[in-house]
């Protein structure tokens, strides 16, 4: 290992992108040598172990120099331990406390159970967590998505809601708050939790600059329709779906 040398390159057009290869290895098929300027060569001992591991697993290491000190401090504070989550908000309802937390990958199995515990969800959800984990990672990586869990004072998950901020050219460039995948477990219904959750979601949208909240609901969910209309939602549009 110590006899291996590593060559560092910088992209000729976009200099923040860097590529590292083992000396003598060919460039990946998706790029060409003409796109890269060689900057230096290092021994294995002088090359970061994460870079070496990345090259060992896929043949190259590609990264962009865009990190901030905030990113560094966050990684330092969470390195080697599970991230401690703090509630984004706490709702007090009938003497009970409900914490709203940004979901983590650890929550995915419980979230899937919530989605499936429903007349429609029972038929369309699956026990295979792989597609859900993939979807969660995409949601978690994109700015403007907020997937929330709702936990009671015993830390049991009793609800969830997904909020998405959608920029739009229409309505003078309005930012929309799209609300979906709302679930409240049976034991937490009828106490005002759903209304309080929507009140928080609306305020979150306002703080982000959104001027309208929108959602769609299956035609069969008549109880949900009455709930939304009590909150002030207007059934002004007809929604369509086309399966790809």
UniProtKB/TrEMBL annotation:
Gene3D superfamilies (alphabetical): 3.40.630.30
Gene Ontology molecular function: acyltransferase activity, transferring groups other than amino-acyl groups
Domain N-acetyltransferase, first and last residues per copy: 98-244
Keyword Transferase tagged: yes
InterPro entries named among the record's database cross-references: Acyl_CoA_acyltransferase, Bact_Acetyltransf, GNAT_dom
Keyword Cytoplasm: no
Pfam families documented for this protein: Acetyltransf_1
Coiled-coil portions: none
PANTHER family xrefs: AMINOALKYLPHOSPHONATE N-ACETYLTRANSFERASE-RELATED, AMINOALKYLPHOSPHONATE N-ACETYLTRANSFERASE-RELATED-RELATED
Alphabetized UniProt keyword annotations: Acyltransferase, Transferase
Protein name per Swiss-Prot or TrEMBL: Acetyltransferase (GNAT) family protein
Lineage: Bacteria, Bacillati, Actinomycetota, Actinomycetes, Geodermatophilales
């Amino acid at each position: 290992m110590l006899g291996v040398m590593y060559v560092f390159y910088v992209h000729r057009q976009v200099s923040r992108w860097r590529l590292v290869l083992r000396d003598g290895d060919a460039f990946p098929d998706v790029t060409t040598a003409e796109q890269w300027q060689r900057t230096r060569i290092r021994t294995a001992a002088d090359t970061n172990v994460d870079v070496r591991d990345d090259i060992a697993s896929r043949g190259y290491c590609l990264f962009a120099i865009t990190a901030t000190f905030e990113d560094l401090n966050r990684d330092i504070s969470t390195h080697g331990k599970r991230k401690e989550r703090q509630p984004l908000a706490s709702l007090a309802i009938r003497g009970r406390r409900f914490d709203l937390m940004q979901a983590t990958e650890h929550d995915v199995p419980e979230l899937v159970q919530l989605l499936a515990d429903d007349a429609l969800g029972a038929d369309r959800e699956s026990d295979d967590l792989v597609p859900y984990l993939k979807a969660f990672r995409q949601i978690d990586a994109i700015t403007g998505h907020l997937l929330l869990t709702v936990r009671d004072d015993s830390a049991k998950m009793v609800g969830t809601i997904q909020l998405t901020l959608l920029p739009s050219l229409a309505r003078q460039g309005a930012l929309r708050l799209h609300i979906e995948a709302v679930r409240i477990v049976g034991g937490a219904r009828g106490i005002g939790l759903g209304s309080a959750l929507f009140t928080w979601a609306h305020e979150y949208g306002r703080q982000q600059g959104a001027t309208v909240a929108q959602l769609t609901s299956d035609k069969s969910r008549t109880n949900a329709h009455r709930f939304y209309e009590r909150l002030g939602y207007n059934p002004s549009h007809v929604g369509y779906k086309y399966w790809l």
